[in-house]
Amino acid sequence: MNAETLGAVRRFLPQIVALFAILAINTAVFPGFLDITVQNDRFYGSLIDILNRGAPVALLAIGMTLVIATKGIDLSVGAVMAICGAVAASGVAGGGSVAMAVTTALVVGVACGAWNGMLVAMLGIQPIVATLILMVAGRGIAQLITEGVILTFNNEGLAFFGSGSIFALPVPVLLWIGMGVLVAFVVRRTALGLLIEAIGVNRRAATLSGVNSHVLLITVYMISGLCAAIAGVIAAADIRGADANNAGLWLELDAILAVVIGGTSLLGGRFTLLGSLIGAMIIQSINTGILSSGFPPEFNLIIKAVIILLILVIQSPALRTFVVFWRGPKEEVFDKEQSAP
Amino acid sequence: MSSEPMLRVENLTKRFPGALALDAVDFSLKAGEVHALLGENGAGKSTLIKCLTGAYRRDSGEIVLDGQPVDPRDTFDAQKLGIGTVYQEVNLLPNLTVAENLFMGRQPLRFGMVDTRSMNRDARQMLAQYGLEIDVARELSAYSVAVQQIVAIARAVDLSGKVLILDEPTASLDAHEVRMVFDIVRSLREKGLGIIFITHFLDQVFEISDRLTVLRNGRLVGTRAIAETERLDLVTMMLGHELSQETREHAAERGGKPETRFRFRGFGRARSIAPFDLDIGRGEVVGMAGLLGSGRTETAEVIFGIRPHDSGSAEMDGAPLALTSPRKAIAAGIGFCPEDRKTDGIVGDLSVRENIILALQARRGWARPLSAREQNTLADRFIKALDIRTSDREKPIKLLSGGNQQKAILARWLATEPQLLILDEPTRGIDVGAHAEIIRLIEDLCAEGMSLLVISSELEELVAYARRIVVLRDRAHVTELGGAEIDTDSIVRAIAADAGTEIGT
Amino acid sequence: MLFKSALAGATMLASAVLGTSVASATTVGFSQIGSESGWRAAETTVTKKEAEKRGIDLKFADAQQKQENQIKAIRSFIAQGVDAILVAPVVETGWDSVLEEAKDAEIPVILLDRTIKASDDLYLTAVTSDQVHEGKVAGNWLVEAVGNKDCNIVELQGTTGSSPAIARKKGFEEAIAGSENLEIIRSQTGDFTRTKGKEVMESFLKAEDGGKNICALYAHNDDMALGAIQAIKEAGLKPGEDILVVSIDAVPDIFKALAAGEANATVELTPNMAGPAFDILEAYLADGTTPEKWIQTESKLFTQADDPMAVYEEKKDLGY
Q: Taking CB atoms and an 8 Å cut-off, how many pairs form between chains A and B?
């Protein structure tokens, strides 16, 4: 167990170093950054904000990791968030129960995922194109549901998913951590993870070995849809309203970025959920740090871009090879050169 | 043929961290000779080639070209010096036209624009020297691998012009195409080029080479003139030990007639393979022979459900089988080792262990995972049983040599304990040592009662282990040979009957 | 495309048939940008209501954010011989030739809500709000509300670089420039959305001693203010009392917050651009009165004292 933990730490060293470096910079710029107090029976502080505000991207990154592991990509998750948020909000606004509204939203999210999965698996449409359809159409669907307005509601039960707390922790934090643990458990304790990776590395070879790639692909997109649905409910609950235009806008890109920062290759195959979640927290730390810093907003995007560029450069294989080479001979380098064509 | 070599390599040494890839190797190439470079995988052939083409920098030693010491920094530099290379996987751009591929990076310009007309004319002239008359304005991918290979050779010769390195150029060609390429190699030899030829096919070495050099474990074993070399000598040089007499026993002469397990009647698929009848018995090896494109692979794919059959029926032990998809075929106890290991077989980034358990796990479904212990036991058992050479079972399979990858794929199917195993070219692109082991393995498997359907272009191999041989031509099963009829001559005759093409042995 | 124009044609035909029933009514064509925001939808609703009130036959065309659709709609209005054309232009340039055509046909054109870059003899007038002025109204209210107390203000800007964000910031800063006791201590973009408004406000609260250091919030739109109000509540403070909240737009939801005492003031960006436009038009058609080239709409201030629930009831069905 100890060795395992040590292995995990070593594997995610670049990500963990990046996360702590960003937190350190944030603390340097804004000294109160690490303070955590208890207010209104819940933890309160910038670190909690990172965990809380990072929930949508973390949730999307969970589904996105699995999709990317199959050599796919899901551009529709932001739009699915908007749809599911709208479904949940209109459910309670129409007088329905919270349980019913949330269940409907989750079912709709899973259905959106099934649609994407079928386009990819059955019709063989490239994932980027297949999910682009729902990415574009999804916001329109969400607007139809909200009838073009921000659909506000005053239901404490639904709002609980956004601003409630259990054991002094915000509910969104518990939701993404819980979902992360659940999905990680399912994919790693069953053979799902292995079969997903096999599809991602070589779909043809996997299919010839009897892997049911159609069903697995659809399942993976459905999980992504489910994650987007939870994120959508959180986003709507957070502002007590469904904003079809802005909910989840561009978050698919943040989710993809989180997966990449976490160390999963866009080429598919080996994936790491923990890495993606750390990636999501890195992104949110940057966002929260920028907001706390008090810099003029004109610099937000530049600062974010520069930091992410630095992280990706530090993680790049070329730089790693260079460092290994510089440090002295190691077996890995030999293997790589041998396998080069 | 001048006696002074045009290319001389002396004491070439290349060290990788943790391994000596080339240890003081000498090599020489005369103008106007074809020099075969031989050795098992890992012997140092590719390293030597990469040092010559500038892909690697040597640690020590000399490379002398036309009396001048040279030190190519990269492949472009090597091309400028006169050393060109053609690889097994053609490294041209399939979506450009033939002419564009030939003149890539040096297109004739007119008013600053590519002069397509004169480029196409030059391309036609260039290919005409090779006896190739094709539409150079079409995309390269429209042509067969053989034509692509010739285009690659034409480009390399045009760019370099002194030394031509052919790295397994014939690996994916059929006999007729090999002949086309060899004709070109001969004509280039007459023009005075020095040609280094790397191959696994010993027949081809004897057919085309003037001299041969054998490497083993990074060291030079020796250089001989072909005229003075016996096949057995060559194998001994490569393996370092004498082959046992394992390929001489005829399987057909063993035992009585086995009980029929698998029975196919009128089984086929339009435009893939004409309906055929086929019986396979318990513990029987049925061979399939024919030229590339004759329907051998198609037969396998129809049986395995990759291309679902549209006529006929299949049964096992009298019970009907629904073979409409690979999953159903696997459920029925059938396994399939495809010919193209890289695209259809290995899952490259996954470990040897994961590749071995993949088919078994897929059959159990995702919800019933094999425990870590079961996986390790299975993997270790097969790594040991099949002698898969890997530092450990967690190594990504793409880092293994071709022969060991093939054995791992075999292990993947053996783990599912199949009733019928289909092997498509199980020994293609595999070094001699692994080759013999796989043949031994096939014999062991059928001794244990497994039925095997083996596709191979190596007729001697088929003769060695097959009880019956199905001969295919033009996407149809044409003859079945059994018992004493089985020998290479009769197979060749059956393939060639009516076909009107001359077949090399 | 074909389908869309066929549909538009059918709609027009239908309205033309209906229009004949109101004899001798003034006919006005209205080319609307689309319905990208609640405010825009409200503008459409109010325009239709205003037309109905005055017995004007309004021909409505939704351009779905495309200038080419607007130009097409204007041409078809000209072909139908309408008495006047209202345009809410989607972009600033490219209008010259179609407006020339309207001028040649002697049909007056009135720009609503946005202006264009073209010679001003091509249109009768432009009815728009003054966004700098809106910022000023908000600032003046705060100056008065705070009195002589020291007040640290946090500002939620609109999308960085957008013209309403620039103008509303400018107007507010001008209004508080004369009061030494008022100071903007933090200013970040909330992208005009509730989510970002809430997230940014959370960080303001953390950065300013749990909010104890903040006296007022100025948001460039109501949506960001509504998000921020929730952040303030969750931080254990009372919005409207501990932190004053002033914003711009006057969307229905902010009136609920005003009624609940959680917001203090909002400046209306009126959706009624058509009312003044129709007034001008009636005068012009009656005796040729030429209006000013720019008509500024009223930027009305609403506070808790203005019976917010009544305003909410009035506004909630306008399509916001």
A: 96
